[in-house]
Amino acid sequence: MMRRTPLLLLSLLACAALAACGTSEADEAAAWSVPAVPSAKPSPTTPSPRPAPASAAEIRRQVKAAMVDLAGLRPETADISKEDTEGYKLAHPCRDTLPTDRKRTGYRGREWGADSDIWIRQYVVGYLKVPGRTLIAELRSALKGCKKYREPDGRTTTVLPMATPLAGAGSETVAWCEKLVGDNGTGYLCTALTARGNYVMEINAGEAADHRKSEALLRTVHPEALAAFAKAT
Length: 233
Fold this sequence. Notes:
Layout: H1 7-13, H2 25-28, H3 56-65, E1 82-84, E2 106-112, E3 118-126, H4 132-144, E4 148-150, E5 156-160, E6 173-182, E7 185-196, E8 199-207, H5 211-232
């Protein structure tokens, strides 16, 4: 299984010129620290997680039900670019994989933004015997000492902190951004992982090779996806 980092991200979001990237080297050099547990709590109307799934079939049904509809969000998301059930790895900065992610049982993903300057992906994974918070703890551990690493395809990735926690995100959400530098140019991708019960949702967002725009896009998409995720799981 591979982490789903789209090859088109760099080609679509590559900077036309360094001045257009919108983020200074000083900004990008900010020291990374483990994201603090947000003080904000999920909305009181958010339902409690369902009981642990009893079968692989139940997990497949719930990850499908967790897919969000972004048709009304922006013109670029009017249509789904791709939906599949391929077993990609969850985001795993500076590691080959999150150890417990190997125990996945069911998964599903959607993508938006083909032929535009944005890229959004929602990916939901279910585990029969593993609570999602275990994956979040492993992710926090991975991020603790991760500042820069090389992808297998040769790109260099620098981990960048979010300016503030995502609105409405609780202790089982971790979010960060990445600067991706490769032969095709420079791009930015912002990511959030959220756990509920035995499920984990990953949201990826990138826009116009711009750090701030990519972070703003994640902040726009995450509440919509979180609502669908909470309803299904």
